[in-house]
Amino acid sequence: MDEKNLSIQGSLLRAKDNSSLELFFDLLNLIFIFFICTISFLSNFIYNCSTFKPAKSNLSIKTPFLSVKIRPTRTNVSKIKTIFSFLAILECTLLIILSLIIYLGQKIDTTSVVFVPKGNISNIITYLGNRNFNISPTIDKYLLVFIGRPQAGWINIGSTSLSKGDFLYHLANAKAATKSIIIYPGETTELILQLLAREYNLSYDELRNSYDLKSSLEDGMIVPETYAFPIGISADHLISYLLKVSQATHENMSKKIFKNYDKNRWKRYLIIASIIQKEAGNEKEMPIVSSVIYNRLRKGMKLQMDGALNYGKHSHIGITARRIDEDNSKFNTYKHRGLPPYPICVVSPAAIKASIFPKKTNYLYFVRDKKSRKNGHIFSTNYKSHVNEILRQKKIR
């Protein structure tokens, strides 16, 4: 049986389960309503018996189903009042239970997969409430204490419309199956979205539209990391989570270094970090590459860096003289002075730190060192030395 048929069968089973649960709640409602009406009738009937006191004769009451004779003594009246009190308490209890069943039977619209953060039940309820789930911060908090503590992470709800009771139960018991994915530093958002679409069977267009709508940067916003997303997550939900985590990471890093987060200043650092990420052969030389960028900017020189042309869909395409000649975008630092309009790719923490703390040098040029085992470069302070090094590297095989 193929995956599509299994998926269809799974959906039908979930729909059947939800339908059965709704029928169960409806039947319980009818049963409790019947019991409450019966108890209410009996309690009122007995109360009327206890208050009606003929002077010298027995009380004889007949109904279509019941015939009762009661001698109006103090003992009988006391017993009747005791029974009445019990039935009144039972009636109140049944009303509370009926109200709870009606409350748990309310419909909740949700996503098929829900993320639950770490924290106590109050924090989790607040988190879900802030995301437009029909959750009560008072009642549902205590219901979850009784049902079970929600698990942190991704929860497989299995349906987009279900009862509140079923939703709370899934929060405490239904862990979602996840699939891990690695986003590497130096990759462009274009190719990352293609990877996500491929790995999680999602629409690239939906991912792209969601990213463009919610991201503050065209590229470089996503933090490269290993992520575990649930199978069945929606494109919008995935992007929302990815950008939220990434935004928090950027803000925390900025506040750790500068004690605050300035959006425009951080964007500039990310742009420089993305060029460093594309150009540097290893983390050790990142601060040196950073110094070359700052030195050339300070002198008003064009950056003339190949890595800047590896933007978007060109992430892994080699840079040729023809490409440099034909590309007229702002990413072509051979033609345009200054920095590109936005980051070229996603960047590592090491690249960000290098962009903020460049090494103090006079270097203006660098060329790939063919003898380096770590993809290193040889740096020069003047053009003549740089040209000589290029000629020397061409002789190495």
Characterise this structure:
The protein contains 13 helices and ten strands. The protein is mainly α and 397 residues long. The protein has three domains: 19-104; 107-173; 181-363, no CATH class. The strands form five sheets. A two-stranded antiparallel sheet has the order 1-2. Strands 3-6 form a two-stranded antiparallel sheet. Strands 4-5 form a two-stranded antiparallel sheet. A hairpin with an 8-residue loop joins strand 9 and strand 10.
Described by the principal axes of the CA atoms, the overall outline is: elongated
* Individual helix count: 13
Q: Kindly give the count of domains.
A: 3
- Rounded to an integer in angstroms, the radius of gyration calculated over CA atoms is 35 Å
Write down the secondary-structure element order.
HEEHEEHHEEHEHHEHHHHHEEH
Portion in strands: 5-15%
Give a quick set of tags describing it.
mainly alpha; 13 helices; 10 strands; elongated
Explain the layout of strands and helices.
Blueprint: H1 3-51, E1 59-62, E2 67-70, H2 74-104, E3 107-109, E4 113-116, H3 121-130, H4 139-147, E5 153-156, E6 161-163, H5 164-173, E7 178-182, H6 189-199, H7 204-214, E8 226-230, H8 235-258, H9 263-279, H10 286-298, H11 321-326, H12 349-356, E9 365-368, E10 377-380, H13 383-395
Antiparallel strand pairs: 1-2, 3-6, 4-5, 7-8, 9-10
Helix pairs in contact: 1-2, 7-8, 9-10, 9-12, 10-12
Brief rundown of the structure:
The protein is mainly alpha-helical and 397 residues long. The protein contains 13 helices and 10 strands. The protein folds into 3 domains: 86 residues; 67 residues; 183 residues, no CATH class.
